[in-house]
Specification:
Layout lengths: L7 E10 L2 E11 L4 E5 L6 H8 L9 E9 L2 E2 L7 H7 E4 L10 H12 L4 H14 L3 H4 L12 H13 L5 E5 L7 H14 L4 E6 L2 H7 L2 E6 L2 E7 H6 L4 H7 L6
Parallel strand pairs: 3-8, 3-9, 6-7, 7-8
Antiparallel strand pairs: 1-2, 1-4, 4-5, 9-10
Helix pairs in contact: 3-4, 3-6, 4-6, 6-7
Length: 255
């Protein structure tokens, strides 16, 4: 089988926040149009790494980085890089959904209007397209003018994903997107991510090993800011090579 050329490659990537060394010599490759999962206990640097992929780490006070993150061959931390363009490539799905304080329709239309000037018919079609892409259209098509805050938490999460997809990213960054959802809502998001990986590169941060086993194509295990082990999901879970990975998977690290 031909190996895919990675879409994202980190090389000796480090992050310090103040005096704290958060990420330590991160070397990893993210293949295109697969679901790559990053696991590890809380506080080990998973969310910080996602923020680096989108350059949202820039918004953190007293932060310093070294090494590089190459996206489509170019280091996104090079001087002169268009940070807005980098962020547009990266859709973000947070732990907690944050719908905009406006209607369901306008939540999706917002990003489209930022980058385009479509006529009403085209805008309607695009809003419907992205709501269909996240499996929401049939549920809420008669409620489009109602406030988005009236949706269930699970529906809000999918709406936020539709809003992110509407700006046409290449990569979807998911920061524990099911942590606030009930089992049914979690299952819908997991099924949606499996569907979306046909068209997007997906990076999912989770500490739920069941979820990682269920949907990951490949896995990276981070502990205290370092990558301990990474590999194809089936091999990673069935035959972990590092003692610390074995302890984490089998519950012996205390998490």
């Amino acid at each position: 089988m031909t190996m895919k050329k990675p879409q994202i490659v980190t090389k000796d990537f480090n992050v310090w926040i103040g005096k704290h060394h958060i990420l330590k010599n991160i070397n990893m490759s993210i293949p295109p149009k697969e679901l790559s999962v990053i696991i590890g206990p809380s506080g080990c640097g998973k969310t910080t790494l996602l923020k680096c992929f989108s350059r949202l780490i820039d918004l953190t006070d007293d932060v310093r980085v070294s090494g590089e993150i190459a996206v489509d061959g170019g280091n996104i931390f090079d001087p002169g890089v268009d940070v807005i363009a980098v962020r547009r490539k990266m859709g973000l799905l947070s732990q907690k959904p944050y719908p905009l304080p406006m209607s369901i329709y306008n939540n999706v239309a917002y990003g489209i209007r930022l980058h385009e000037n479509p006529d009403h018919k085209t805008l309607d079609e695009k809003v419907q397209h992205y709501l269909e892409a996240v499996g929401l259209w049939k549920e809420i098509k008669h409620r489009l003018r109602e406030p988005a805050a009236g949706l269930s938490i699970g529906q809000q999460q999918r709406l936020c994903l539709a809003r992110g997809l509407a700006v046409e990213p290449e990569v979807i960054l998911c920061d524990e997107p099911t942590s606030a959802l009930d089992p049914a809502g979690s299952r819908k998001v997991e099924e949606l991510l499996l569907k979306l990986k046909k068209n997007y590169t997906i990076i999912l941060v989770t500490h739920v090993l069941r979820q990682a086993r269920k949907i990951a194509d490949n896995v990276s295990f981070i502990y205290l800011g370092e990558i301990i082990e990474q590999g194809a999901a089936a091999d990673f879970f069935q035959n972990p090579k590092e003692k610390m990975t074995q302890e984490y998977i089998y519950g012996d690290l205390g998490y």
